[in-house]
Structure formats: C-alpha cells, structure tokens
C-alpha cells in the first residue's frame, strides 16, 4: 500500500498533467456568483444574521486552477485571500487566471493541506471544495484545516457521496485493471476510458449514466481524468461523513442544499411514515433520505467554530430588532420574477415584492410590515429563500 507522500505525489502529477478545473481565462471578473463563496451570504445562511465585518481572511484550501479563488476575491472586495494547492503546475494556472481578471488581493502557496499550519494566522472563512476526498488521510486533513479556523469562523466543504458515484467507481476500477503497470500514466488512462465508453453497448448502465450525468463536462480531458483516473478517492455516506465531521471538532451548521434534505418531498404523502421518520435522530433522517434518493453525488456543507451568534428571531425580536436587507445574490430585481441564490426562478407575490422594496430604507421588519400586507410567516419564507439578510437593530 502506498504511503501518504507517494499518494500526494501521484495526485500532484495528475493535476500537473491536467490542471483542474479547466475553465478559460477571463480578462474581467467572472460572471455571476456562487453564494457559498460570498462571505455575507454564507455567514447569513449559517448564523441567521449578516456579518458585522467584511474585511475578513479567506483560505481557499486546494484551490486548483484558481476558479474558486478568483470568485472569492471578486465577491469579497474587502477580504484578503490565500490559495494553497499541492500541484505547482496548477498553481501557475491559478496565478495567471487571477492576474488576468484583476483578482489582486490573493497570495498563493505550494502547500499540502496537511501542512496548512505553516501559514501565519487564522481565517474567518475556509473553502475546501473537492479536496478532502482525494487525501489518503482526510481526517488529518480536516483537523489541520480546523486548527486554522478562527473562533466564530465558518468552513465550506465539498466531498463525494458513494451512492451517486457507484457507476463512476466501477469505471475507475475497470480502467485501472486495463492499465495494469501503466497506472499512473494519466493520458493513457484517459485514452483507455474513452475507448471503453466508445466500445460498450448503448444500453450499458455505465454508458447511460455517463451520458445522463457527466458527458457534457467530460468532453474535456481534464474533467474526464479527474473523474475516472484519479489515483486517490474516498467516497462517503452519511454515516462516514459525520465521522469526518466529528473528527474536525467543529460544529455542523447544515447542508448548503437544504431542499434535498427535506423529508416531505419523499414521504409527504404518507403521514405515518413522516411520523416514524420524525422520531429518528437528525443524522438517521439524513441517512434515510440518501437511501431513498441515491442520486446525490456529493455533499456540500458548512462547519463552524464556536462561539457563533444565534439570534433569537422569535416574533417580537424579528419585528423590533431585525433590519432586513435584500440579498445581493438575487438577479432580476426590481421585478416580481427574480432568480434566487441558486439561480432558481422565484415568483414574488405583490406583498412580497412590496416588502422587498421596503428593505432599502434601514427599517425594522415591524416598521415595514406597518405598510405592507404580509405576515411574519411570509417574512420567514423570504428569509428561508435567502432573499433577505438580517442585521440586529443597534
């Protein structure tokens, strides 16, 4: 069995060969946003209120070719950003990407996640997307990152799910068998994989899955290599995922796609099943959901280091102490049809539209409601849709 340095070196060679993600360079800021990389949006989602500070330190842990780093810089204009990666070749791509788009408030370091402690200071936001599952020791990796998270800071993590990647795992093993001693020659692995997909019958399960889920992005060899010939991958289920989370010593703040984890969408037609499911622990409910809907290919979630603010937005405090602000992650305003933080179309009622209009005058929820025919449940709906952020009335 390969040891940690051998595996890390193999991973570095893959990304030196195929820098990832393979997005084109832009001579301007990248379009749109990912709200998980936008400090006010991520913090509001995790804590229920907008952060008091914008001049934060952000770490992009395993930054790859700098796609996420570029967004982190442009979306957070008062933040200082640090990117680290194991692949020196990919870091050069990241540096050039950020130089081209004017993402100047960033420094890059050729560094393993295991060695992140060599960086000075701590971070308010740590972003680690698609990295931990490629480590031979993910627990050591997440512990190293957790040690760099400030008190009151948050961490955004993305790791693979085993249930939604079952067909991918089979193709990975098939390619490895056919490569034999040439495993580690990543260009050869891509060639073998493409030949396999071209040779297999059209109704083959692996072929159908590839065409349904991944064919568009896998036209690029960099994406194909990352998916099918990676030298190290650990896939999770809810049970093993929470073993990883517990090892971090941080608080689980929630999945960043909460709609997937709603039991009602799967069991809402059967009240008895809903009642039984509600008796389960939160983790067992998550496990039940992924067993019943095994298409999930990855987990995205937030962790935090206490103490984090937990405002009491009960009736009186929401009315008197909360000042709402329209989310910056909303496209199409002013209109009764807008795109939300996930680029999903939202049809606003007249009352919702009027409430959002009132959010531009630094008034409390109660003051706005005095002139708008919407109740608190309607306001809470806007909060749950992440269309408004809340600050505490000083």
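Q: What amino acid sequence fits the structure above?
A:
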């Amino acid at each position: 069995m390969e040891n940690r340095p051998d595996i890390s070196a193999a991973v570095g060679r893959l990304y030196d060969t195929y820098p990832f993600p393979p997005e084109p360079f832009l001579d301007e800021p990248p379009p749109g946003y990912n709200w998980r990389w936008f400090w006010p949006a991520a913090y509001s989602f995790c804590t229920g209120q907008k952060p008091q500070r914008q001049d934060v330190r952000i770490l992009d842990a395993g930054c790859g070719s700098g796609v996420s780093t570029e967004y982190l810089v442009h979306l957070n204009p008062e933040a200082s950003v640090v990117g680290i990666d194991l692949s020196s070749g990919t870091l050069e791509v990241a540096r050039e990407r950020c130089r081209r788009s004017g993402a100047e408030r960033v420094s890059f370091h050729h560094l393993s996640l295991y060695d992140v402690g060599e960086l000075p200071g701590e971070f308010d936001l740590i972003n680690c997307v698609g990295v931990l599952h490629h480590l031979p020791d993910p627990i050591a990796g997440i512990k190293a990152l957790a040690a760099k998270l400030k008190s009151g800071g948050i961490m955004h993590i993305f790791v693979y799910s085993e249930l939604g990647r079952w067909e991918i795992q089979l193709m990975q093993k098939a390619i490895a068998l056919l490569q034999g001693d040439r495993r580690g020659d990543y260009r050869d692995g891509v060639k073998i994989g493409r030949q396999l997909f071209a040779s297999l019958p059209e109704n083959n399960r692996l072929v159908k899955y590839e065409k349904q889920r991944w064919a568009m992005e896998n036209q690029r060899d960099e994406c194909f290599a990352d998916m099918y010939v990676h030298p190290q991958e650990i896939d999770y289920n809810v049970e093993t995922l929470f073993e990883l989370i517990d090892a971090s010593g941080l608080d689980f703040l929630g999945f960043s796609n909460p709609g997937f984890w709603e039991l009602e969408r799967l069991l809402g037609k059967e009240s008895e099943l809903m009642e039984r499911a509600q008796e389960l622990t939160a983790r067992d409910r998550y496990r039940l959901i992924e067993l019943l809907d095994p298409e999930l290919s990855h987990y995205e979630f937030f962790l935090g280091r206490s103490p984090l603010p937990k405002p009491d937005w009960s009736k009186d405090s929401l009315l008197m102490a909360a000042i709402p602000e329209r989310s910056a992650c909303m496209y199409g305003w002013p209109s009764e049809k807008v795109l939300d933080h996930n680029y999903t179309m939202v049809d606003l009622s007249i009352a919702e539209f009027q409430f959002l209009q009132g959010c531009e005058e630094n008034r409390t929820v109660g003051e706005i409601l005095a002139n708008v025919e919407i109740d608190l449940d309607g306001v809470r709906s806007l909060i749950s849709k992440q269309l408004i952020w809340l600050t505490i009335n000083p």
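Q: And what stands out in the fold?
A: The radius of gyration is 23 Å.
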